[in-house]
Amino acid sequence: MAYRVGMTLDSSGDLDSPDDLFEYELRGVYYGERRLADLLDELQTSATDSDLVDGFASHRDETRDHVARLERAFDALGLEPRERTVPTFDALTEEKRTADDEAVDEAVQNALYNHVGRKAERLELTEYEGLLALADVLDVDDEVVDLLERNRDEDEDALDELESVSEGGQFQSFVDRLL
């Protein structure tokens, strides 16, 4: 079954076809990427670990590219770029702000920021995996699939970076202090 270019959710918002579900999920990942760009900016500004600061800044810039790629995907599908609220992404921003308020130790804050960043990347990867599985079933245009895969691949790389930071210097020093 091929994706019907230009199909949009009807005005009732009912999801009654695989095409509707694909658009629904695309709108959700678009929302998430836009919110994540803001969250990464906050994380970059708040973190004090130089590896985290650099990583968050770099991925924030990549995330802005992800948003642009998603806008190109919408365009290729004949759709207007629109968001769908995904409360899970909003919760990550709230979790970061809670860390600001409750963690008094700088190393604890950095560890929490790293953890929030990894959660965000895992959420994005889950979103892209579902979207790409639908794209495969619907035989979505290769151009759109390539854009989605590129975003997913960069998110995998960002998760790997955050995981390597959590195994590194300042984080290990913090854990050693606790032991």
What does this structure look like?
Helices cover 78% and strands 0% of the residues. With 179 residues, it is mostly helical. α1 packs antiparallel against α2 and α2 runs antiparallel to α5.
Structure, briefly:
With about 180 residues, the chain is mainly α. It has six helices and no strands.
Provide keyphrases for this structure:
179 residues, mainly alpha, 6 helices, elongated
Helix content: over 70%
Q: What structural category do the secondary elements indicate?
A: mainly alpha
| Strand coverage percent | under 5%
Distance between the termini: 57 Å
Number of helices: 6
**What composes the largest sheet?**
none
Overall 3D form? elongated
Low-confidence stretches: none
DSSP E strands, number: 0
Global Rg: 18 Å
Oligomer class: single chain
Compressed to H and E, one letter per element, the order equals HHHHHH
Mean pLDDT: 88
Describe the secondary-structure layout.
Elements (H helix, E strand, L loop, with lengths): L17 H29 L3 H27 L10 H16 L3 H33 L3 H25 L2 H10 L1
Helix pairs in contact: 1-2, 1-3, 1-4, 2-5, 3-4, 4-5
